[in-house]
Amino acid sequence: MDRLTSPRTIKYIMEKYGFKFSKGLGQNFIIDDNVLERIIEGAEITEDDVILEIGPGIGVMTHALCEEAKKVVAIEIDRSLIPVLSETVGHHENLKVIHADVLKLDLMETLATEFGAVKPKLIANLPYYVTTPIIMKFLEERIPVTDLIVMIQKEVADRIIAKPSTKAYGALSVVVQYFTEPSIVTKVSRGSFMPMPNVDSTVIRLKVREMPPVTLTDERTFFLTIRDGFGKRRKTLLNALSSGDLGLSKDQARIALDAAGIPEQTRGEALSIDQFATLANAIYQVKIGG
Ligand code: SAM
């Protein structure tokens, strides 16, 4: 068999196993060695690392990961790829392939069983429609991983790393930056995949913070403040906060904004994560009648 990144290998697999690409499962396989190298380098994988890979496909990345890391657990939803993976990467003794839908798997239990108390790095090149839900699931449920290295649509990466008062800045930016320190690993053009998708991608690395970057009185109020603050993008904060899920009256919103030192006419997209925290803490005080 040729290298796993070779289109000839993919054709060989299609013929031998009768494999057909599933558009619904977002099957676009990497055929570019440089992209692989940049991901492995950006993830800073050492021989002490343990890895959770979601969506190994025919095992291109899996193979590279097995060569660098201590242990790799790969979760693949497509049953027809399991015998393929057994041929392409089955010889790696530090690899375990699990046939499952990652969205239905008890991740806490799987991680405890496979890695004990050691936190893995998550590496995923998934269909775009599941990538953001998976990132949010890992962060919000605090599934113990040290980093999330994920291939995502370029526009979503831009939103995640965006700074205040830019077009891409939104709730996703603030929430992801609250949980992690995001950085760009590499941009990937659509020509690096087979079959070729119709969008370009970016690989980002989200380094999970050990300590939150802001001090919060109540985390739920913080998330609600972000949601309401960005809920109606063209509204002033006074209007947005008094017509959202926080259930604040206009007077309460005015008092909280004043206590946080934020002018009423400011819009949510201008607030930094620190300002959202200050505002959320003020809102919490107002709500408990303090
Ligand atoms: N990692 C390989 C690569 O880079 O060449 C394959 C990437 S391909 C974009 C996405 C892979 O994720 C496919 O193999 C697909 O079957 C798998 N997949 C899609 N949805 C999944 C899910 N919910 N759980 C686990 N794997 C999934």
Structural overview:
The protein has 290 residues and is α/β, with parallel strands linked by helices. It folds into two domains: 202 residues, Vaccinia Virus protein VP39 (Rossmann fold); 71 residues, rRNA adenine dimethylase, C-terminal domain (Helicase, Ruva Protein, domain 3), CATH 1.10.8.100. The strands form two sheets. It has a seven-stranded mixed β-sheet, with helices on both faces. The chain has a two-stranded antiparallel ribbon with strand order 1-8. α9 packs across α12 and α11 packs across α12. The N and C termini lie far apart (70 Å). The structure holds S-adenosylmethionine. S-adenosylmethionine binds next to β1, α3 and β3.
Outline of the structure:
By secondary structure, the chain is of the alpha/beta class. It has two domains: 7-208, 3-Layer(aba) Sandwich (Rossmann fold), CATH 3.40.50.150; 219-289, rRNA adenine dimethylase, C-terminal domain (Helicase, Ruva Protein, domain 3), CATH 1.10.8.
Task: Provide keyphrases for this structure.
290 residues, 17% strand, Rossmann fold, two-stranded antiparallel sheet, 9 strands, binds S-adenosylmethionine, alpha/beta, elongated, 2 domains, single chain, 42% helix, Helicase, Ruva Protein, domain 3, seven-stranded mixed β-sheet
